[in-house]
Amino acid sequence: MKLFVSDYDMTLAINRVVDDKVINAIKKWREKGNIFAIATGRNKFSILEQTYKNNIEVDYIIANNGALIIDRNNNILLKEEIEKNNAMEVINYLYNEYEGSVEISNENEILSIIPRKGEHNLPFRVDKKITIEEAKNISNIIQINKTSPDVNTTEIIQDEINNKFDTVIAYGNITAIDIVKRNISKATGIQNLENILKDKNIEKILVAGDSNNDIDMIKKYDGYVQINAREHIKKLTNKYFNLVSDIIEVNL
């Protein structure tokens, strides 16, 4: 039995489209008795919406960059929360230093903090808009998210968070910054999934990704990199792919 763990955006879905070849390959992979999982920076609500919409058959989801693991029935198998005071330190910093909103996700909902200044037009689902004062009452925070206007700003915010706070880690990806508990990554998420599946006799683990939050898992599991990834990601390996189905076909 093999385990294949794929990133979602620009890996499984290219430019937001999941090719029919990929859907069919995943189905064949699972029919052979193998396990398919998605590892993503998205929260569970966002990634479940994508799997339902695209009819993706998935056994496990590693969401929030490794901080949450759920099975195909939406049962929570693992959850790593940011301690409340640590989360508020980061939220206050982002709120005061940058325009635009800050988002918070836990296992139940996605909340958006009304910005001190700047726009509050969000291109994704939120369950409720709250004030910075109301944010102090939110508990069980799994991930903090900040949207930025461009790649350069994303990298600046990512580096600032990682240098200023030793209790969290920030992953920048194009125009989004995902912030989770320190020492959490997709690689630790896969390790935790391995432990969950310890009775399944997993003989091989395959991973595929394209971005900064995929680096740890690509390094640890000798992973594949999407051919159009940025150069610093492509330098991690000599194993490239166009569609995820390419990987599945050579490993069935």
Entry keywords:
alpha/beta; 252 residues; 6-stranded mixed beta sheet; Rossmann fold; Hypothetical Protein, Haloacid Dehalogenase-like Hydrolase, Chain: A, domain 2; 14 strands; 2 domains; 8-stranded mixed beta sheet; 24% strand
Describe how the helices and strands are arranged.
Elements lengths: L1 E5 L13 H12 L3 E5 L4 H10 L6 E4 L4 E4 L4 E4 L4 H14 L4 E4 L4 E4 L14 E3 L1 H4 L7 E5 L3 H14 L3 E6 L2 E6 L4 H11 L7 E6 L5 H6 L3 E3 L4 H4 L5 E2 L2 H8 L1
Helix pairs in contact: 1-9
Number of helices: 9
Major β-sheet, in short? Answer: 8 strands, mixed
Distance between the termini: 10 Å
Overall geometry comes to: globular
GO molecular function, one term: magnesium ion binding
Protein name: HAD-superfamily hydrolase
GO cellular component, one term: cytosol
Pfam families: Hydrolase_3 (PF08282)
Describe this structure in words.
The chain is α/β, with parallel strands linked by helices and 252 residues long. The protein has 2 domains: 2-80 and 185-250, HAD superfamily/HAD-like (Rossmann fold, 3-Layer(aba) Sandwich); 84-181, Hypothetical Protein, Haloacid Dehalogenase-like Hydrolase, Chain: A, domain 2 (2-Layer Sandwich). It contains 9 helices and 14 strands. The protein has helices at 20-31, 44-53, 84-97, 132-135, 151-164, 186-196, 215-220, 231-234, 244-251; strands at residues 2-6, 35-39, 60-63, 68-71, 76-79, 102-105, 110-113, 128-130, 143-147, 168-173, 176-181, 204-209, 224-226, 240-241. The strands form 2 sheets. It has an 8-stranded mixed beta sheet with strand order 5-4-3-2-1-12-13-14, with helices on both faces. Strands 8-7-6-9-11-10 form a 6-stranded mixed beta sheet. Strand 10 (168-173) and strand 11 form a beta hairpin. Helix 1 packs parallel to helix 9. The radius of gyration is 18 Å and the shape is globular. The chain starts with a strand and ends with a helix. The model has no long low-confidence stretch (mean pLDDT 95). GO terms for molecular function: magnesium ion binding; phosphatase activity. InterPro entries: HAD-like_sf (IPR036412), HAD-SF_hydro_IIB (IPR006379), HAD_sf (IPR023214). Pfam families: Hydrolase_3. It comes from Brachyspira pilosicoli WesB. Keywords: Hydrolase.
